[in-house]
Design brief:
The complex is a heterodimer of chains A (140) and B (980).
Chain A lengths: L7 E6 L3 H10 L8 E6 L7 H9 L4 E6 L10 H18 L7 E5 L5 H18 L4 H4 L3
Chain B lengths: L4 E4 L3 H12 L4 E4 L49 E4 L2 E7 L5 E7 L14 H5 L4 E2 L8 E2 L2 E2 L11 E2 L9 H5 L12 E8 L1 E4 L22 E3 H8 L20 E8 L15 H15 L5 E6 L9 H12 L2 E4 L2 E6 L6 E6 L5 E6 L1 E6 L16 E3 L9 H17 L14 H5 L4 E6 L5 H4 L2 H9 L6 E5 L5 H13 L4 E6 L6 H10 L7 E5 L9 H21 L7 E3 L3 E5 L3 H12 L3 E5 L16 H14 L4 E4 L3 E8 L2 E7 L5 E6 L1 E4 L3 E3 L13 E3 H9 L10 E5 L16 H15 L4 E6 L9 H9 L3 E4 L7 E5 L2 E8 L4 E5 L3 E4 L3 E3 L2 H8 L26 E3 L9 H19 L3 E3 L6 E2 L10 H4 L5 E4 L4 E4 L9 H5 L5 E2 L5 H12 L5
Parallel strand pairs in B: 1-2, 1-11, 2-3, 11-20, 12-19, 13-14, 13-19, 14-15, 21-22, 21-23, 23-24, 26-27, 26-32, 27-28, 32-43, 34-41, 35-36, 35-41, 36-37
Antiparallel strand pairs in B: 4-5, 5-10, 6-7, 8-9, 16-17, 17-18, 25-44, 29-30, 30-31, 33-42, 38-39, 39-40, 45-48, 46-47
The chains are: A alpha/beta (140), B alpha/beta (980).
Chain lengths: 140, 980
């Protein structure tokens, strides 16, 4: 399995996590190449469809990064996301998939090292889980 | 373009003043002595009383497209604001309105136009000095990044430590370094006004030998601790002891270092240190998972702001913070352990010792600062109490007041830019142009640009590609311009580094090409390209380009609604806050309807006794009543309020029961408050028991004679600062002190005892507290569990209270008992319903954010100020009124309000009118148009968060550049990418 490289989609909020990613980039804190990041204005913008689409298209993990509770530029978008993502994790486990393939983390704008750490840890976690079966079984 | 105002100091107040004026359409130059913006806040990640950041909330909300939507801690980007770092004003000459301002810009050694922020210079620099950004807990080179997360991220050279060895010059790949430059002088002329928002520095505890700061490595300042705990700090967010990086088990905060100390000539309170300490204590407990004992040694816990008291109480109960009332005598190193010994005398008079791992000094403001000599010039405005420490919300209010004065000096009316669009080009199918910057051939080593090119040509909607050696220079932008003119491209993606630096240049390109700004997108090739190998990085960039090009291809021109603004305002409440708001608006040329339910204007001010406060209120009253732009409606009630920001309608009922409709563009709610009633302390059982406000009134109008009282007892926080009214009313302590001094001065033989919990004489009112103590007034602290007891027997008042110094009860039989009962709002129940705005649990009108939007209600176009919002003093209320008026002028000062690019819109054909989106909107921007049966979006209030879009079961909501299809496609691109 040493050659297995997971496919990971990261949906991140413009205000905090994207800024942290930016800081990680400018501070030359490299994070795993497996991650493909999509910037959204707010994690509250994340539709369940996006997460399911990613899994159905072959993602092994979906990472969602937003502002710490209370820091949201749009007051409480991250709290809305938390509820929704909790629901999606339940859905994954109801269908027999590992809910840990979907992660939500709060990463503040100045937390470049935090971003790097979270990304590395997530890739490790997904690598340990191995390839996702969601796309193959197509039952979602 | 003329510069309207030059603002010195790019801390939070300077930024707010700059945005205030910029939103009125004025051009502003904002400069700072430091090489970065944000002032002290660039070093602080979290703020009390919620440990959140939220600085981005300060960004303009009405005309969002004037700057990139990005974290404000990164830097200031706004079309109308020019930020000049490392610069100071050296002279201001000429009359107000036509000032000539000379600014000196320090030579920082690196040419920002050439620098690509690669960092080669820093890696070769041999110098190593303590890093000021981390308060000396890490080191930096002589060439360094002043604030790691800010852009522009060009390094600067600290010439005071540079050895001029020239290594950096040799290492720089683009010859951007010049070690021999000189400071440059820049002149701005004519300038309408200058605002000084230079702020105060922090007291340096090394200047006195108190507490061993600078000698003992584990004695740190509160700001130092903030850096030690910060993710961008020396230990990347871990809480370690500076001397040996061991974990911390016991921590002590010593309050009032450099404040409230007559020996240091510091007879003031620095206002924020108490809450600052509580916040840091909470953060430290959270970081160490409560495996930490924190003691806070304090004199008075000054928790006088919104939610501060509950925050402190919560910290005490959930994290077990110890609050110990005393001044610490000394801090010494322990002999046998590696800790430090704190010795103090506790409130029972016992000598105590404690060993701790870390001592935090809550250092206050620096004293002895003076204004520059041009401060006296006409047209130069300093923020009120520039050198004071203030909470963020209060700093913003002070900035609004200064911006209001600058605005009053005139300037061109707000004329929004009229854009012409090339409709022919826009109507064609999407033709993207991709600009690939090679960054002076630096990127070709890391990326296979040819491969990217060949892959892109195969994708549907393939872009035309323009490869440039350096896109960011003037030549680069010229080539992009030429490419746009010579082709039919109608969308542009620029892949380069640091795209925010070029925002204004990109906007200029968009203007010239007659395309919307939203059709230009930038992609950061340096920061967001992942992977270690060339192959990985190329693949990463390729999929990002594909996704960006695709989402841009899907972006359609936004229909921009233009809502014509009704250029008049409604002010509800004619107290100090309402009056000053009305006057500020009227001075800016706005028609104002001022409503008051009473027949006489003035609010609580009508009870003022002769003195400076009464004089200034009388002056304001006559200016308001005589102003041709202000229509006063006395004894009138507001019954209904409808509409959207810019086009509201109010229904009012006049004294003779006639209904009248008032159209207006913005509303200011200043309905005020009054003194609270209490049943505690036998309040109504004796006519010798008065409230602090009644005593002040009686002493003022001479209905009470100080000579009649020989024994006076005052009890602070009567029925307040405990549930259910668990907040401080800010003004009672100062009022009580002034009352006591007035009695003592007129009747020196009177004995006065004040029972208090924490004396809230914040800021300069500390001087009044000192004066009271010097006058011989006795102060006895009490705890909630040992309140003084009051009984009325045979027409005599008996007060029994526990004196912690004597360790026994004292019995008093005063002829006057004064209770500080605090402030409650008056009409908020009704008012909040009429305006559909929220109230706090204590019934005050709730601001959108007590830190960053202190006078905005949750609804755009409605502003709250004065006692209706929170307890505050007379001057504070007047300032809040001006602040509210300045916020209202963002709307009223424009001829029309335009829809920004990223705004939710409804596809009515798909909408099932389930209305689930209406409560989901955090800005109350969604509503059901009952006439047409449609769900509508108030495009001015909508901030484009997309909460509605993710919720909509029918995908009926369109989010501009964040269209569902674009995001779905991006996911597909990323997951189906072929390895090159």
């Amino acid at each position: 399995m040493s050659e297995y490289k997971p496919k990971i989609v990261a949906l991140v909020c413009n205000w905090c996590t994207y800024t942290a990613a930016d800081l990680a980039g400018t501070s030359r804190l490299s994070y795993p190449a497996e991650i493909r990041m999509i910037r959204l204005m707010c994690t509250g913008m994340i539709d369940q469809k996006y997460i399911l689409k990613a899994f159905l298209d072959g993602a092994d993990g979906v990472f969602i990064g937003g502002c710490h509770p209370g820091d949201c530029h749009y007051i409480d978008g991250n709290i809305k996301a938390e509820k929704r993502i909790g629901g999606t994790r339940n859905l994954l486990s109801q269908f027999g998939f590992e809910p840990d393939r979907l992660a939500l983390q709060w990463i503040g704008a100045s937390e470049g090292p935090e971003f790097q750490h979270n990304m590395t840890a997530f890739v490790e976690r997904i690598t340990a889980l191995g390839p996702s079966q969601v796309a193959d079984r197509m039952i979602l | 373009m003329n510069i309207h105002t030059v603002i010195a100091g790019a801390g939070i107040s300077g930024i707010r003043a700059a945005f205030d004026l910029a939103e009125l359409g004025h051009r502003v130059v904002l400069l700072d002595k430091a090489p970065s913006s944000g002032g002290i806040l660039s070093q602080l990640d979290h703020q009390f009383p919620d440990n959140h950041c939220g600085m981005c909330t300060l960004l303009p909300m009405i005309d969002r497209d004037k700057g990139p939507q990005f974290c404000l801690r990164k830097g200031i980007f706004h079309d109308h604001v020019t930020f000049i770092p490392s610069a100071e004003i050296v002279s201001v000459k000429g009359p107000a309105g036509q000032l000539s301002v000379v600014v000196e810009k320090q030579h920082t050694g690196i040419d920002p136009l050439k620098c690509m922020a690669c960092g080669s210079c820093e890696s070769v620099c041999p110098v190593s000095v303590p890093d000021g950004f981390n308060e000396g807990y890490s080191t930096r080179k002589a060439v360094f990044l002043p604030v790691p997360h800010q852009i522009p991220n060009h390094r600067i050279i600290d010439f005071s430590v540079c050895t001029r060895c020239g290594e950096c010059v040799k290492a720089c790949p683009v010859s951007a370094i010049n070690l021999d430059g000189e400071a440059r002088k820049l002149e701005f002329n004519p300038v309408n006004a200058v605002i000084l928002a230079t702020g105060s520095g922090q007291y340096d505890p090394a200047q006195s030998d108190l507490y061993g700061f600078g000698v003992l490595p584990n004695v740190v300042t509160s700001k130092g601790l903030e850096r030690i705990m910060s993710s961008s700090g020396p230990s990347k967010g871990q809480l370690f002891r500076p001397s040996d990086n061991k974990p911390i088990k016991r921590m002590a905060f010593l309050q009032c270092v450099g404040s409230r100390n007559l020996m240091e000539n510091a007879d003031h309170c620095s206002s924020v240190c108490c809450m600052f300490a509580v916040k840091e204590a909470v953060m430290a407990c959270e970081k160490s998972h409560d495996d930490l004992t924190v003691s806070i040694f304090y004199m008075d816990m000054r928790t006088f702001g919104r939610d501060f008291q509950r925050y402190k109480d919560q910290a005490e109960t959930s994290h077990g913070l110890r609050f110990i009332r005393c001044r610490v005598h000394s801090v010494e190193p322990c002999e046998n352990t590696d800790g430090m010994k704190i010795s103090y005398v506790n409130d029972k008079g016992m000598y105590m010792e404690e060993t701790v791992d870390l001592v935090v000094l809550s250092t206050g403001k620096k004293t002895g600062l003076t204004h520059p000599d041009f401060y006296q010039n006409e047209g130069v405005f300093a923020l009120s109490d520039t050198f004071d420490f203030k909470d963020i919300g209060e700093s913003l209010v002070a900035a609004d007041v200064a911006a209001g004065k600058a605005m009053a000096l005139g300037g061109p009316p707000h004329t929004p830019e009229q854009r012409i669009f090339d409709t022919q080009r826009l109507s064609k199918k999407a033709m993207p142009l991709l600009v690939l910057c090679q960054c002076g051939n630096n990127l070709s080593n890391d990326l296979d640009l040819d491969l990217i090119e060949s892959h892109l040509s195969a994708m549907p909607g393939a872009p035309q590609i323009l490869k440039l050696e350096q896109a960011c220079g003037a030549a680069g932008f010229e080539s992009i311009g030429t490419a746009l003119t010579s082709s039919q491209a109608n969308r542009v993606v620029i892949a380069a580094c640091n795209p925010f630096l070029f925002d204004h240049k990109i906007k200029a390109l968009a203007r010239d090409a007659q395309l919307p700004d939203g059709f230009f997108k930038t992609l950061d090739m340096r920061s967001h390209v992942t992977g270690k190998t060339k192959n990985e990085q190329t693949q990463s960039l390729l999929s990002q380009i594909k996704s960006t090009v695709n989402s841009l291809n899907l972006t359609l021109p936004v229909y921009r609604e233009k809502r014509t603004v009704t250029p008049s305002a409604l002010v509800v409440g004619g107290g100090p806050a309402g009056l000053s708001a009305a006057f500020c608006l009227a001075s800016a040329g706005i028609d104002v309807d001022l409503l008051d339910k009473e027949s006489q204007l003035g609010g609580n001010g009508i009870h003022f006794s002769p003195g400076p406060e009464k004089n200034s209120l009388d002056k304001l009253l006559s200016s308001v009543t005589n102003h041709p732009k202000i229509r006063v409606h006395p004894a009138t009630c507001l019954t209904r309020h409808q509409g959207l920001a810019g086009v509201f309608t109010a229904t009012i009922t006049t004294p003779n029961a006639v209904e009248q409709k008032i159209p207006h563009g913005a509303a200011i709610v200043a309905t005020g408050g009054g003194q609270a009633q209490t049943l505690d302390y036998c309040a109504s059982q004796h006519n010798g028991i008065l409230s602090v406000f009644d005593l002040a009134k009686g002493l003022g109008d001479k209905t009470l004679n100080p000579l009649d009282f020989s024994k006076v007892v005052m009890i602070q926080c009567a029925g307040t600062r405990e549930e259910p009214r668990n907040y401080c009313s800010r003004i009672c302590c100062t009022k009580a002190l002034l009352n006591a001094i007035a009695i003592k001065e007129a009747n020196p033989s009177a004995s006065i005892h004040i029972f208090y919990r924490d004396m809230m004489s914040y800021g300069e009112s500390e001087k009044i507290y000192t004066r009271a103590r010097q006058a011989g007034i006795l102060f006895i602290p009490f705890d909630l569990h040992k309140k003084p007891q009051v009984a009325v027997n045979n027409q005599t008042i008996h007060v029994t209270g526990f004196d912690p110094v004597l360790q026994e009860d004292v019995q008093l039989a005063p002829d006057l008992l004064v209770l500080s009962t605090g402030i409650v709002p008056t009409d908020n129940q009704i008012i909040s319903k009429i305006f559909h705005i929220n109230t706090t649990q204590d019934g005050f009108l709730k601001e959108a954010n007590s830190k960053w939007r202190p006078v905005d209600s949750g609804r755009e176009g409605i502003f709250v100020c004065g006692l209706a919002r929170a307890p505050l003093g007379f001057q504070e209320a007047m300032d809040e009124g001006i602040s509210a008026a300045m916020r209202a002028l963002r709307i009223l000062g424009r001829p029309f309000l335009e829809t920004p690019q990223v705004t939710a819109r409804v596809r009515h054909s798909l909408c099932s009118r389930c209305q689930a989106c209406i409560p989901e909107c955090p800005y109350q921007a969604r509503y059901l148009d009952e006439e047409n049966g449609k769900i509508m979006v108030d495009s001015v209030s909508c901030q484009g968060c997309g909460a509605c879009a993710s919720l909509c079961p029918n995908s009926s909501i369109m989010m501009g550049q964040f269209e569902e299809k674009g995001i779905m496609d991006s996911i597909e691109f990323f997951l189906n990418e072929a390895c090159p």
